[in-house]
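Budget justification aside, the reviewers requested a transparent look at the raw inputs and outputs of the sequence design task funded under Objective 1. We therefore reproduce one unedited record. The lines immediately below are the structure tokens for a 135-residue chain.
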């Protein structure tokens, strides 16, 4: 019996100029580390620049985008280059849902930002579960 392992690509915001971009990347990394074998990261800058592996994966597997601001760069680029993401998450919406304030630091997150990272990583994990259930 041939069992196909389904994977989900996570496309993270790459906005290094905003604290929410840092939060996004840290939470995505945590979600990836907690779900080995089920998730892979898709590098947004490489994806936009024409990375064949990223684009091919995103065309053949479901994707979840995670954006740090309302520009929704990850979601828009994914839809334009490979098709509509299976799920699009927004850091501001997740923080609001959990009653958390946005981080103010660009780097060197500490314990005060840890709750936000955990909340976003949990939302990503839930999205992965939902996408895999629907696959």
């Amino acid at each position: 019996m041939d069992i196909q392992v389904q994977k989900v690509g996570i496309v993270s915001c790459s906005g290094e100029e905003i604290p929410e971009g840092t939060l996004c990347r840290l939470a995505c990394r945590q979600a990836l580390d907690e779900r080995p074998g089920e998730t892979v990261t898709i590098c947004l800058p490489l994806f936009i620049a024409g990375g064949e592996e990223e684009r091919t994966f995103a065309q053949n597997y479901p994707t979840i985008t995670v954006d740090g601001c309302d520009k929704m760069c990850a979601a828009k680029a994914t839809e334009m280059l490979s098709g509509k993401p299976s799920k699009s998450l927004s850091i501001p919406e997740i923080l609001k849902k959990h009653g958390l304030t946005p981080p103010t630091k660009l780097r060197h997150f500490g314990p005060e930002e840890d709750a936000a990272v955990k909340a976003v990583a949990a939302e990503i994990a839930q999205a992965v579960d939902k996408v895999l259930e629907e696959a």
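The longest strand covers residues 8-12. The chain has one domain: 8-134. Computational costs for records of this kind are itemized in the attached budget.
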